[in-house]
Amino acid sequence: MPSEGRCWETLQALRSSEKGRLCYHRDWLLRGENVLEECMSLPKLSSYSGWVVDHVLPHAQENPPSSETSASSRSASALDQPSCVPRSPVRTPASSPSSSATPDGPEGKHESRHTEPMVLQSSRGIQVEGCIRMYELVHRMRGTEGLRQWQEEQERKVRALSEMACEQLKRFDERKELQHHKELRDFREVMEKSSREALGHQEKLKAEHRHRAKILNLKLREAEQQRLKQAEQERLRKEEGQARLRSLYALQEEVLHLNQQLDASETQPHGDLLKLDLAALRTRGNQLCGLISGIIRATSENGFPTEEDQAVAERALQEMRDLLTSLQQEIARACENKRKQDEEAAREKRQGSKMQQGPEVPREAPAPSQGPGGKQNEDLQVKVQDSTMQWYQQLQDASSQCVLAFEELTNSKDSQVKKIKMDLQKAATIPVSQISAIAGSKLKEIFDKIHSLLSGKPVQCGGRSVSVTLNPQGLDFVQYKLAEKFVKQGEEEVASHHEAAFPIAIVASGIWELHPRVGDLILAHLHRKCPYSVPFYPAFKEGMALEDYQRMLGYQVKDSKVEQQDNFLKRMSGMIRLYAAIIQLRWPYGSRQEIHPHGLNHGWRWLAQILNMEPLSDVTATLLFDFLEVCGNALMKQYQVQFWKMILLIKEDYFPRIEAITSSGQMGSFIRLKQFLEKCLQRKEIPVPKGFLTSSFWRS
């Protein structure tokens, strides 16, 4: 279209004009931007210029020229309104007179002359700019109105949404409260239902409880009746057991009394005329005494004797009575025979005296009686040899004299003396308790401390200096307590740990060699606690209390209760092991020129004497095993062939005697001894005992 071409020409003319090259904005003062910077940039048309050219200018060209002037004037007047649109920097013709009145004078006039034709020439541009501004104003007003309406609409929506949210919140609160009430009501119903069920269950449990209580009461009554019945039965059983026990003690006393009568038969006259073997009778009497003693020991362990035990004891008593009766009958018969022989001899003598002629015919005396098969029986002795008994009594007298020597120290009430006594006892016993097989140097330190104490030198004990010179009786007291402690270690420590016998024994042997009195006191304590180390079997004397006799045998009796057989054998075993270790060991740092104060010859004597005595059930086998296991290797090296002969004697002659008096429940110690000797005979060697101290021990 021609009009479109003109529009673009107009726009091109506007861009080429001086004002077109200017960059200005109506609100530049409000923006506060630097005007000079905007002037340096290229001129830009409004974003609405294209729309004005396309829509406004074609309609303006269709209007007559008369209207064109009026429109331009209206637009100009409208554009000149300061309240609507800011003023254009391009001056209009109406404002030229006022501008000419500026103090510039001729320069303003000259400028107006030059710009007036330009304004006249660009009136079309002014019109376009006015239209653009009008459109911008109208568009801004429409936008402002639309924004205001939109804001009002949004505010109405916000108020509506707020009211709706409030209503929904109220409904939500109402529904929540309603749900809460419903849940509370359901919970109450559940609780009431649970309560009713619990009450019902409780009533049911109460009913069951009452039923069970009735059943339990019935059971309790039955149990109480049963307990009373059992208590009554137990009481009756105890009474019967005590009666049987008293009966056993009475039987034992009678058997011992009858055995004494058998022993006294040795002194009966005309013993050579008896056809009975008195030694066999005495042996059988000793076996019967041992049988009853074994029953009483087993009874003390198990409670009360049974009827079978009592029957066995009664049979043994009856047999003992039969033995004594047969002996008395035989003695009476022998006396009668002797009387007849004497009468016949006297008659023959009278007849011979009447004869005047004829040779005298001598008559031979009858031969002594022999056992069955024409062989005279040999029997083992029951009593210890007189020399051994004298030695035993001398040691006990020496121990008693030692006790009397420090009696004043023991019974003193002075606190200072009591303190000295306590310190001396600790100094004597604590080192013995510390003896162990840890190292030879430690053992030598303990030995030196004991030797120093016995030598009168001060030693440290409990942070204080202790010496036997603090009291005149101090040495006797220390020697006695030291010996007592050595034996107690054998009774307790060696009994529990067999290897401990060797370190304790070697220290005791060294002290014995330097202080012989301590060795004698060790033997006295050992013989008193373990009479089998003599060896010595104490005899029951008439009028002696049974508890005193059991103490003499080595049993511990507390509150009229005898210790159990296992514990008794354990203690005896520990002391015999200590004795067997002492007789073969010597202190390695002592003098080798002197002999052992109590050497292997005493061990050989002990072994020979115990084999010459009647064995005791369960005791002899235990002590023989312990002695040979500890000391057998040393005796084998010392006595060689003679030792093996004695071992064969034990196997062939002594084993049957032990087995004859050992009950089936006490065969353990006998079997152990038998297996040990059979193994040694098979290997032809007694093994070195476990725990024996070798030469390497003293280098540690």
Automatic annotation (TrEMBL):
<feature type="compositionally biased region" description="Low complexity">
    <location>
        <begin position="66"/>
        <end position="78"/>
    </location>
</feature>
<dbReference type="GO" id="GO:0005543">
    <property type="term" value="F:phospholipid binding"/>
</dbReference>
<protein>
    <recommendedName>
        <fullName>mRNA export factor GLE1</fullName>
    </recommendedName>
</protein>
<dbReference type="GO" id="GO:0016973">
    <property type="term" value="P:poly(A)+ mRNA export from nucleus"/>
</dbReference>
<comment type="function">
    <text>Required for the export of mRNAs containing poly(A) tails from the nucleus into the cytoplasm. May be involved in the terminal step of the mRNA transport through the nuclear pore complex (NPC).</text>
</comment>
<keyword id="KW-0509">mRNA transport</keyword>
<feature type="coiled-coil region">
    <location>
        <begin position="206"/>
        <end position="268"/>
    </location>
</feature>
<dbReference type="GO" id="GO:0015031">
    <property type="term" value="P:protein transport"/>
</dbReference>
<comment type="similarity">
    <text>Belongs to the GLE1 family.</text>
</comment>
<feature type="compositionally biased region" description="Basic and acidic residues">
    <location>
        <begin position="106"/>
        <end position="116"/>
    </location>
</feature>
<keyword id="KW-0539">Nucleus</keyword>
<feature type="compositionally biased region" description="Basic and acidic residues">
    <location>
        <begin position="336"/>
        <end position="351"/>
    </location>
</feature>
<dbReference type="GO" id="GO:0005737">
    <property type="term" value="C:cytoplasm"/>
</dbReference>
<feature type="region of interest" description="Disordered">
    <location>
        <begin position="59"/>
        <end position="123"/>
    </location>
</feature>
<dbReference type="GO" id="GO:0000822">
    <property type="term" value="F:inositol hexakisphosphate binding"/>
</dbReference>
<keyword id="KW-0906">Nuclear pore complex</keyword>
<feature type="region of interest" description="Disordered">
    <location>
        <begin position="336"/>
        <end position="377"/>
    </location>
</feature>
<dbReference type="GO" id="GO:0031369">
    <property type="term" value="F:translation initiation factor binding"/>
</dbReference>
<dbReference type="GO" id="GO:0044614">
    <property type="term" value="C:nuclear pore cytoplasmic filaments"/>
</dbReference>
<keyword id="KW-0653">Protein transport</keyword>
<dbReference type="InterPro" id="IPR038506">
    <property type="entry name" value="GLE1-like_sf"/>
</dbReference>
<keyword id="KW-0175">Coiled coil</keyword>
<keyword id="KW-0813">Transport</keyword>
<keyword id="KW-0963">Cytoplasm</keyword>
<keyword id="KW-0811">Translocation</keyword>
<feature type="compositionally biased region" description="Low complexity">
    <location>
        <begin position="85"/>
        <end position="103"/>
    </location>
</feature>
<dbReference type="Pfam" id="PF07817">
    <property type="entry name" value="GLE1"/>
</dbReference>
<dbReference type="InterPro" id="IPR012476">
    <property type="entry name" value="GLE1"/>
</dbReference>
